[in-house]
Design goal:
This protein is mostly beta strands. Helices cover 0% and strands 51% of the residues. The strands form 2 sheets. Strands 2, 4, 5, 6, 9, 10 and 11 form a 7-stranded mixed beta sheet that branches. β4 and β5 form a beta hairpin. The chain is globular.
Length: 111
């Protein structure tokens, strides 16, 4: 079965950076499109970014130019490099394959 395990979250000051990782198993990672999404309490899950099996990337306007999605197919791992973080980036970040997601990793941006 699909298993997705996110890590790398934490507390960071505004303007800081974090790199999230998602370890994937139970499916053919290299041929799968993968996504990052985030959720703020009281709000719906927000799509952040997608990377196709061919490496094509898409970003929401809220993170474009600040976040970079990438993948390492040899390690079955998805990444999200987050730079220039601000308060609006606070939330639980999820790695997703279709409708599946992991347990999430908390990112808190605060001074």
């Amino acid at each position: 079965q699909v298993q997705l395990v996110e890590s790398g979250g934490g507390l960071v000051q505004p303007g800081g950076s974090l790199r999230l990782s998602c370890s994937a198993s139970g499916f053919d990672f290299s041929t799968s499109s993968m996504n990052w999404a985030r959720q703020v309490p009281g709000k719906v899950l927000q799509w952040i970014s997608t990377i196709g099996s061919d490496g094509t990337t898409l970003y929401s306007n809220s993170v474009k130019g600040r976040f970079t999605i990438s993948r390492d197919n040899a390690k079955n791992t998805l990444y999200l490099q987050m730079n220039s973080l601000n308060d609006d980036d606070t939330g639980v970040y999820y790695c997703r394959k279709g409708g599946e997601r992991g347990q999430g990793t908390q990112v808190t941006v605060s001074s």
